[in-house]
């Protein structure tokens, strides 16, 4: 090879390797991100859940702080209303006093005896202000007499307003207008600056008019110092910069504490009067204020508490700062940890991908161009698992075949030495060493030579049921193997260790275990409607003697007699050589009955021939044994005659006379009984043939009349003729020599060919001949004729 070409190849390989390396790094980067994303997703979910819990916690704390403020505000409201109620009670007592009511009509207070009335009225006013510090003073203004009477003095209205009392914003006329010209039922005049005697301070005035609207007689006035209201309001923990205001329904200030810009406070009051919320936030003098307000149900006054949110929620904000700090630190740590874990977890997958990519099949390398590494590895391992599964399946099948072959050869005596048997068992993966062996044979039913499809199917189902139930028995170890189509063998093993002194006890124990296992097995099989005939060969100690145990069980099958106490029989060496006993087992009788009922003359003659050989040629029976045998055979014939409704050729009494007559040729009587069975068998056969002809005609007529119906099936035919579906299938194939479905398909396709020649469209033809879809019709037509319906039409030049 030229040097330049070699260099070109090397350069090309280097470029490919470089590109593969770049692609792998790109793929690994995506893989790292895919590992990182779940961590980040879980982190986001955790943060979201934490944020929700945090917000709920903060909201709870804020509500607790606000509820604490509301509680203090309610306490202040309750206390103020109690004190104001005391003032109202004092004023009410004064207004209802008889002296006060009597002096209201006096117009000349110092004329005559009226002077005494003045002094008596003043004396009637107890000085409640001495015992109630919430009340600075109170007095009564009489309009008719123009006097002001208090517990301390009596003066004219003008003199009293100038010397004792004066409102900063009102002159005497304004004061008179408010006190005497305006009707006050129980009114509080908002906070005003008042000079009382020598002291000037903020006061709240309570006024109750005397008389009634339109006829004013005066007023009772009570002065409430604002400092007393402040004492009560100071129970509310007002932070620096906060304020508390009490506003009546007219917007008058009843009480206040705290500082603040008046304009801002007025805005706050205006907003509070227009809002129904009990809590809200607002900006006041550039500060975030948390406002709580309540409205009294008794007075209608609004209590407003505005405090800096930073001070009120100081503990809440401290928790926020701590929480955000911890969350920030934790978030940074978790993100770094997620980066490290995603990088670490992607490393093994990266190495695995590199390994698989390096040693993959050539077909798998094409998949490496896909951007999803998981899909690539999934495909690679799926292919590997599929290959492994296929290999395991093949090995299992081969091992099962080997196992069946070993048992078949073993039970039939195909091994000459122990070494050959041991090698075959090891090759099949079996370990079958025991101190004793015994074979049980299960006869699943006798059908003579009738091995039709239905019979074979029935035997197959029975064998499967026996094998399934036998494998579930754990009393004693055993293997299950098919001997014939209607026979299953169970090979039992005695795995218990035994000594020389306990050999006989172990044999008894092994026998009991086998009987217990067979008892349970027969019980289970009976639930599945399987009643086998069970015989057990003798116990053997050598593996090469197992075929002899099977042979003994098979010999017992021909002479087994079922009784009420046991469903099986054991081989007995002492009884096996007995003579002078005729052979006519229940199985032979059952075969005779089935042969007659089935109209099978050939099977009937075969069974009778075998019975004659077994009893006349193979044995030397006594005359009595032969008579008993003939009586049993005749009894079977009598039972059959009643079953198939056929008269006996020889009556019972005549037969008994011949049987008991001396010198009678018993062999001829056997031939006579044989003629009885043949007569009944032929009669049944004729009836069956006649019935079958009618049934087949009805079946064919129904199929021809309904083959174009897509619902035509074995079930429909069986329902129409009142027989079973399985019988329809087997009977039709027996009579016609073709399956039901194939025959219906032939009818439909022949009709379809006729319609094609008539020029009908294929879609309409498919529907008319009974196909549910055009695809089904096309597949059937092409399968039958090797071409499609359209091609068939072209071939006919239609």
UniProtKB/TrEMBL annotation:
Domain of life from the UniProt record: Bacteria
PROSITE patterns, A to Z: HTH_ARAC_FAMILY_1 (PS00041), HTH_ARAC_FAMILY_2 (PS01124)
Membrane-spanning segments: 31-54
Keywords from the UniProt entry: DNA-binding, Membrane, Transcription, Transcription regulation, Transmembrane, Transmembrane helix
InterPro entries per record: Homeodomain-like_sf, HTH_AraC, HTH_AraC-typ_CS, Tscrpt_reg_AraC-type_HTH
HTH araC/xylS-type domain span: 697-795
Keyword Transcription attributed: yes
PANTHER family assigned: ARAC-FAMILY TRANSCRIPTIONAL REGULATOR (PTHR43280), HTH-TYPE TRANSCRIPTIONAL ACTIVATOR RHAS (PTHR43280:SF28)
Listed name of the protein: AraC family transcriptional regulator
Classification lineage: Bacteria, Bacillati, Bacillota, Bacilli, Bacillales
């Amino acid at each position: 090879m030229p040097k330049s070409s070699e260099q070109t190849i090397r350069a090309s390989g280097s470029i490919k390797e470089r590109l593969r390396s770049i692609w792998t790094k790109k793929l690994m980067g995506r893989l790292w991100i895919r590992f990182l994303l779940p961590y980040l997703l879980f982190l986001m979910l955790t943060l979201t859940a934490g944020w929700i819990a945090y917000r709920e916690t903060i909201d709870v704390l804020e509500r607790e702080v606000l509820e604490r403020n509301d509680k203090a505000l309610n306490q202040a409201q309750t206390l103020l209303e109690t004190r104001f109620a005391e003032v109202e009670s004092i004023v009410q007592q004064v207004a209802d006093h008889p002296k006060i009511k009597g002096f209201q009509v006096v117009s000349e207070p110092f004329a005559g005896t009226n002077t005494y009335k003045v002094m008596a009225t003043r004396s009637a006013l107890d000085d409640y202000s001495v015992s109630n510090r919430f009340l600075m003073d109170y007095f009564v203004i009489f309009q008719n007499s123009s006097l002001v009477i208090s517990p301390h003095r009596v003066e004219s209205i003008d003199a009293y307003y100038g010397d004792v009392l004066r409102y900063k914003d009102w002159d005497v006329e304004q004061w008179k207008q408010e006190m005497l010209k305006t009707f006050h039922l129980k009114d509080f005049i908002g906070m005003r600056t008042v000079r009382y005697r020598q002291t000037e301070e903020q006061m709240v005035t309570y006024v109750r008019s005397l008389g009634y609207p339109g006829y004013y007689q005066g007023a009772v006035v009570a002065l409430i110092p604002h400092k007393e209201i402040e004492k009560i309001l100071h129970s509310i923990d007002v932070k620096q910069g906060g304020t508390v205001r009490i506003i009546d329904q007219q917007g008058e200030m009843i009480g206040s504490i705290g500082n603040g810009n008046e304009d801002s406070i007025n805005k706050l009051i205006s907003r509070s009067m227009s809002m129904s919320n009990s809590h809200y936030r607002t900006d006041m003098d550039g500060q975030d204020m948390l406002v709580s307000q309540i409205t009294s149900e008794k007075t209608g006054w609004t209590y407003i508490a505005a405090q800096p949110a930073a001070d009120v929620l100081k503990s809440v904000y401290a928790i926020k700062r701590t929480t955000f700090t911890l969350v920030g630190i934790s978030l940074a740590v978790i993100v770094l940890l997620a980066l490290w874990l995603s990088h670490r977890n992607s490393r093994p997958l990266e190495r695995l991908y590199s390994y698989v990519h390096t040693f993959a099949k050539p077909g798998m390398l094409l998949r490496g161009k896909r951007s999803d590494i998981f899909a690539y590895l999934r495909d690679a391992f799926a292919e590997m698992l599929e290959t492994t599964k296929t290999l395991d399946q093949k090995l299992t099948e081969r091992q099962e075949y080997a196992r069946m072959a070993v048992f078949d050869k073993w039970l039939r005596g195909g091994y000459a030495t122990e070494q050959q048997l041991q090698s075959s068992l090891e090759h099949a993966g079996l370990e079958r060493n025991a101190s004793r062996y015994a074979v049980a044979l299960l006869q699943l039913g006798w059908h003579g030579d009738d091995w039709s499809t239905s019979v074979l199917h029935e035997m197959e189902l029975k064998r499967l049921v026996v094998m399934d139930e036998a494998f579930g028995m754990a009393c004693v170890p055993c293997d299950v193997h098919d001997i014939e189509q209607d026979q299953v063998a169970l090979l039992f093993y005695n795995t218990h260790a035994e000594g020389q002194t306990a050999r006989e006890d172990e044999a008894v124990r092994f026998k009991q275990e086998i009987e217990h296992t067979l008892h349970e097995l027969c019980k289970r099989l009976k639930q599945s409607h399987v009643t086998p005939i069970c015989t057990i060969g003798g116990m053997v100690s050598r593996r090469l003697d197992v075929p002899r145990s099977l042979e003994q069980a098979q010999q017992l099958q021909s002479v087994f007699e079922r009784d009420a106490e046991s469903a099986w029989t054991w081989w007995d060496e002492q009884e096996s050589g007995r003579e002078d006993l005729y052979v006519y087992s229940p199985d032979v009788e059952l075969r005779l009955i089935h042969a007659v009922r089935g109209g099978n003359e050939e099977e009937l003659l075969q069974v009778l021939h075998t019975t004659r050989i077994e009893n006349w040629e193979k044995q030397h029976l006594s005359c009595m044994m032969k008579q008993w045998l003939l009586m049993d055979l005749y009894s079977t014939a009598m039972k059959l005659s009643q079953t198939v409704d056929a008269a006996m050729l020889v009556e019972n009494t005549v037969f008994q006379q011949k049987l008991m007559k001396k010198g009678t040729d018993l062999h001829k009587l056997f031939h006579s009984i044989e003629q009885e069975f043949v007569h009944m068998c032929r009669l049944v056969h004729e009836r069956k043939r006649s019935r079958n002809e009618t049934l087949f005609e009805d079946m064919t007529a129904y199929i021809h009349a309904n083959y174009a119906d897509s619902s035509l099936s074995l079930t429909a035919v069986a329902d129409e003729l009142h027989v079973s579906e399985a019988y329809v299938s087997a009977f039709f194939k027996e009579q016609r020599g073709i399956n039901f479905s194939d025959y219906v398909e032939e009818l439909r396709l022949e009709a379809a060919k006729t319609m094609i020649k008539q020029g009908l469209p294929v879609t309409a033809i498919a529907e008319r001949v009974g196909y549910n879809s055009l695809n089904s019709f096309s597949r059937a037509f092409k399968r039958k004729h090797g071409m499609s319906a359209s091609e068939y039409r072209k071939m006919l030049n239609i």
